[in-house]
Amino acid sequence: MQTKKKRSLNSNPSSSDGLDLDPARLPHHVAIIMDGNGRWATRRLLNRINGHQQGADTVRTIIRTSREAGISILTLYAFSTENWERPQIEVNALMDLLKKFLKSEQQELMDNHIRLNAIGQINRLPDDVRQTLHETMTLTRENNAMLLNLALSYGGRSEIVKMVRDIARKSVQGEIDPESITSECIQEHLYTRGIPDPDLLIRTSGEMRISNFLLWQIAYAEIYITETLWPDFSKDEFIQIIKDYQQRDRRFGKINSQRRSLKVREH
Ligand code: FPP
Fold this sequence. Notes:
The protein is of the alpha/beta class. The protein contains eight helices and six strands. A six-stranded parallel beta sheet has the order 3-4-2-1-5-6, with helices on both faces. The longest helix has 24 residues, at 88-111. Farnesyl diphosphate binds next to α1, α2, β2 and α3.
């Protein structure tokens, strides 16, 4: 009898060794702007929706690779607030793809102990998609090997507007003293509350822009832009980018000797 291929990676939660990565310098949080599905399809004389379908396969590969590498948080920009302006047929296809993807990945998320979270204007998603999303988040809520954070109907500016409104409301109600508003207070009022900022931001398809993604959170992220279109983005390239990140010198606005003395004091 043929046994089901075991996909769980839990017996080896941080198997970055096999990928030739330095486990001590792994990015804790990787965020990705997945771009180029449309161009990938157009170059093959295919429908843009075929590009998104192919892109969903890449999503699966990159989730698996992240887990295998021992990355703790993966945030994917799956649908922006601006994407609602695309032709209705494309929006519908993306929503359908998202719903099918969530359904089909539930078992793999459970097998690999991955928790699903969503950031963005979730109330704008169609009822059936929202329901599947909540179902998957509930199912995976106890998983703690990795957090998969999907940005859905997400926009950095609208996130900031919401944060300002929430803080202003609490201020008027006397719950927050305006003098006590700090960076930490702001972080507490963003969708990414409780989630550390990305260490590495990757954008595929060569565009040199941020496109309203995690505007507050990427203040000190290392940025890597690849020409590869998202459907062609591979495990190997992802690992190469993490290796590139591991060679970078992150100073957070300080100079090297300060960073060294900070480290000495930490230990
Ligand atoms: C950008 O390509 C990509 C998107 C707008 C959506 C991302 C969606 C996926 C990767 C597939 C489904 C996602 C999940 C989570 C299952 P584009 O259409 O802007 O490409 P273009 O710039 O070449 O036109």
